[in-house]
Protein: NADH:ubiquinone oxidoreductase
Organism: Candidatus Rikenella faecigallinarum
Amino acid sequence: MLLTRLKVLLQHGTQYIRHLDRVKLCDEFRGRPVLRSNGLSPAAATELCSLCPTGAIAYDGRLKLDMGRCLFCGECAARYPNHVRFTNDYRLASPTREGLVVTEGDAPEWSFDQQAVRPEIKRLFGRALHLREVSAGGDNSCEMELGAAGNVNFDMGRYGIGFTASPRHADGVVVTGPVTANMARELESTWQAVPEPKVLIVVGTDAISGGLFADSPAVNRAFFEVHKPDLYVPGNPSHPMTFITGVRAMLQPLSDAEKPDEEKVAEPKAKKAKSKRVKPQAEQQSEKQGN
Ligand code: SF4
């Protein structure tokens, strides 16, 4: 019996990705774009911008691509391969909406603005983050990828990140889909059911900007006029690695150099206060008695 089990284990091999920090996706994956307008005539620039179905590309002397609106369909790269290229870098998430806009000449490496993350998120959720997912008119693509983020391959649970059924047990909400009118109230009531403090994460182009459905009368995005997301995870659908690296970056503790000045000042004060703590009477008496 034991031998059979060992045989099965050997046959299965390693099921999970050992080091998520070293994941490299296939070359066909469309991730972070690289833009170049050299040799692009004004007429060609206008055509390039107009072929995008969601208006994600703009040109004002430099090319810009808004990953929060991009469907990653690859049409622009296919028609203008010398000017638009998609790399296989899946690290795209940002704590700000502006951070999703890639401008020609930007450094090719992913930069995550740690200062833009609310300090209580890092303080309270660094070890465990349980999220309630709301598919607000989604097409089940981002939802499937989020499910995959927790499967045996990606296993984001190893970092304490997971999904929970009840908003009462959640630390935050993940929104997918463009938020259809008939899901607007449900999204708001789910958000209200999550106890404070809480985080809001939007996953996928549809959730970030409305995507192809942005101008549809069937969509009601009033929720985002009131609640600002803490993390934007682009993709259409978003890759599990884009989600996992984004959430991990959001929870990552700040280095000393990154800490805001108030925190640096507050820390020594807190230590001083701790050393000057007045001991309670019972503690003093027990010390006197040598206990
Ligand atoms: S890949 Fe993005 S930017 Fe390019 S055409 Fe498609 S949606 Fe527009």
Summary: The chain is about 35% helix and 15% strand. The mean pLDDT is 89. The longest strand covers residues 129-135.
